[in-house]
């Protein structure tokens, strides 16, 4: 099972490279801050399966259609998605406490790519943003695979600068 992880798109058009990843993915995960409904509708139409949550910049229209926390079992991998996990200091301990029955937690908010494993074995992934790099050198997204009940092949992708 191929996964595409994105977050913090902030109502900006997705690059063609990301749309190609949407077409190739079995599951698209969006960790919030869509800002406008258009991308939710388009990803819903173009994804085989979409798992998404709302973020702090998402209004009532998106909150009516998306949860704050999404959970899914992906062929034995217990996935959770949330927009914000708080400051990086103490993140692993907070997430271990809040998500004890989870294998992988995808989050956003900071626009800073993140890939760590907590002391309890929870994999924390933040794909950054494919449309708003903020203070990062590149816009980014992540891909991964689920194989035999395990998350594999997690890869951070950098997008070329927009012209």
UniProtKB/TrEMBL annotation:
It is an enzyme of class 3 (hydrolase). NCBIfam families: yfcE. It comes from the Bacteria. Keywords: Metal-binding. It comes from Amycolatopsis iheyensis. It holds the Pfam family Metallophos_2. Its EC number is 3.1.4.-. Residues 1-148 form the Calcineurin-like phosphoesterase domain. This is Phosphoesterase. InterPro entries: Calcineurin-like_PHP_lpxH (IPR024654), Metallo-depent_PP-like (IPR029052), Phosphodiesterase_MJ0936/Vps29 (IPR000979). Its cofactor is a divalent metal cation. GO terms for molecular function: hydrolase activity; metal ion binding. Belongs to the metallophosphoesterase superfamily. YfcE family. PANTHER family: VACUOLAR SORTING PROTEIN VPS29. Residues 118-137 are annotated as: Disordered.
């Amino acid at each position: 099972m191929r996964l595409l992880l994105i977050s913090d798109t902030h109502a900006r058009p997705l690059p063609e490279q990301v749309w190609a990843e949407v077409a190739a993915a079995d599951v698209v995960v969006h960790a919030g801050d869509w800002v406008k409904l258009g991308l939710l509708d388009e990803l819903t139409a173009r994804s085989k399966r979409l798992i998404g949550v709302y973020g702090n910049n998402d209004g009532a229209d998106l909150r009516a259609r998306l949860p704050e926390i999404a959970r899914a079992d992906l062929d034995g991998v217990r996935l959770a998605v949330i927009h914000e996990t708080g400051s990086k200091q103490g993140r692993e301990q907070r997430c271990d406490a809040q998500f004890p029955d989870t294998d992988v937690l995808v989050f956003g908010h900071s626009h800073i790519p993140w890939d760590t494993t907590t002391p309890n074995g929870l994999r924390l992934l933040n794909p950054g943003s494919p449309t708003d790099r903020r203070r990062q050198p590149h816009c980014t997204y992540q891909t991964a695979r689920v194989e035999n009940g395990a998350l594999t092949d997690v890869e951070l992708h950098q997008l070329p600068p927009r012209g």
